[in-house]
Amino acid sequence: MINDVVGWLNGLLWGYALVPLLLVAGIWFTVRLKAIQFRHFTHMFSVMRHSRSGDGHGITSFQALCTSLAARVGTGNLMGVAIAISIGGPGAMFWMWVIAIIGMATAFAESTLGQLYKEENSAGVYRGGPAFYMLKGLKSPALALIFSVCLFIGYGIIFSAPQANSIAEAFNYSYNISPWITGTFLTIFSGIIVLGGMKKIARFSELVVPFMGIAYFLVALWVIGANISEIPAILSNIVSSALGLREAGGGMIGAAIMQGIKRGLYSNEAGMGSVPHAAAAATPYPPHPASQGYVQMLGVFFDTIVLCTCTAMIILLSGIELGQEFGIQLTQQALENEVGFWGSDFIALAIFFFGFTSMVANYAYAENSLPFIKMNNKIGRLIFLSVFLGMIFYGSIATLGEVIALADLAVALMTVVNVVAIMLLTKTLVTLAKDYNSHIDKGDIPRFIATPDQEQEMNLTRGIWSEENTRIK
Q: pLDDT averaged over the chain?
């Protein structure tokens, strides 16, 4: 009965609300920010030039990017793409590209707002996210509470289950290790890392994510290079299947769109309201809220346009008949066909590191919900930790269909609430983007110092964006 209810809710939210809302929001922010993801494409990279500098209060911009990529890069890239192509055909990849390209503007919006409305806690560490800009920017405690509940359910309970499931399946396929053994190891190892706090999670992500991301990209590049003559036909197949131009693909266009947008959002998280937590925790350079918007736009680009495309090419070049394998095992079998026996082992290793970093980043995100749902105390944190770790073990031994359906529902609930909020804060967002661009046009280092009028208009509190705290040191 629970599965039936979850399926009904997913059909309602994804079929009638979320897909149109995501497309409208992405186009809305692309227009209002004057196609920022295209105009300032190279600027995304230049912002990272000084991304390792910080002030000791927050994490660095590079750590914020790695933490957000740790949550993004995981099952969505290796398993999610496989599911999308299995169900929606090659055309699903086209719609993953579409939702990523317009979603870059949405990611800029939410991450800029997350940085603007951050606050410094008693330990001298920055924190923020959608609940903070809903509370402070929109003056809506009710909306902040609703989002915090969705965040707790999604990142605190559900999202780590698909990651654990993929790792357990990959290890069972490659090494015949029982899922309950993998689940026990993941549960213990995750507990050790998350108890170290946000800075330890960021440091762990900073070390692991770039290494595994580059390694996976190079392997995919090798596969693509070895089959370079087939790439034009693969790209043509993706586009024609997406638009229903092929005879057999005409009836698949709806499935391609739905799976592409579903798995694309689950992978790059643009608009979900998760990444603003990492963006808010950073000490930005340049010292302007919009700089974190550029950093996280870059995260969407790397996640979907680069890494998801790598997985799609590996699968589509392998010659495997779609539908025979499902989930992470499809990616393993595809790479094994291309490079030999070590292909499945490499995917097992990659999904372990990608999936594990996603799980610990999930904990860091969910932790931000605790003050809003009155669980920011010893007992509340103990309950949270127990549920979080328990779901990792459950995900390891559950079926893929169960955990994916729950994850889709949590994604939908979070995204609907967050996208509505950031669209209501468009005026503030446009003001910040114009302020940042005015500095760039003058050749200055962008630095945001709120005037008294801006503080009143944006509902800011004096402190973080005052002159003494945004001075270049």
A: 85
CA-closest candidate to residue 50, choices 299, 284, 211: 284
Lowest-pLDDT choice from 124-133, 205-214, 361-370? 205-214
Tell me the C-alpha to C-alpha distance, in Å, between residue 399 and each of 100, 131, 385: 28, 32, 23
127: enclosing H helix or E strand? strand 126-127
Question: What is the pLDDT confidence band of residue 408, given thresholds at 50, 70 and 90?
Answer: confident
Q: Distances in Å between the alpha carbon of 455 and those of 111, 172, 321? A: 19, 55, 58
pLDDT at position 400 is 67
The mean-pLDDT minimum among 37-46, 165-174, 247-256 falls in 247-256
Backbone angles phi and psi of 282, in degrees to 5: -90, 150
Residue 126 bridge partners (DSSP): 120
The residues, ordered by sequence, that sit 6+ positions from 422 with a Cβ below 8 Å of its Cβ are 25, 29, 106, 109, 110, 113, 130, 133, 271, 429
Note if the bond before 286 is cis, omega within 30 degrees.
yes
Residue length of the chain = 473
DSSP result, 48-81: GGGTT---SSSB-HHHHHHHHHHHHSSHIIIIIH
Q: Which of 191, 154, 165, 208 is nearest to 365 (CA)?
A: 154
Please spell the DSSP secondary structure of 157-202, one letter per residue.
Answer: IITHHHHHHHHHHHHHHHH---HHHHHHHHHHHHHHHHTT-HHHHH
Smallest CA-to-CA distance from 51 within 32, 67, 38, 35 is with 67
255: how many CB neighbours lie within 10 A of its CB?
Answer: 16
Residue 296, pLDDT above cutoff 80: yes
Helix axis angle, 378-397 to 160-175, nearest 10°: 40
The secondary structure element, H or E, covering residue 460 is none
Please give the biggest Cα pair distance in the chain. Answer: 64
Question: What are the backbone angles phi and psi of residue 369, rounded to the nearest 5°?
Answer: -85, -20
Residues in contact with 140: Cβ distance below 8 Å, sequence separation at least 6, in sequence order = 134, 421
- In 14-60, which residue ranges form alpha helices assigned H by DSSP? 19-32, 36-39, 41-46
SS3 302: helix
pTM for the structure as a whole: 0.86
Assess contact for 417 and 273: CB atoms under 8 A: yes
Instruction: Choose from 109-113, 278-282, 339-343 the range with maximum mean pLDDT.
Output: 109-113
Whether the CA torsion 77, 369, 104, 447 is positive or negative: it is negative
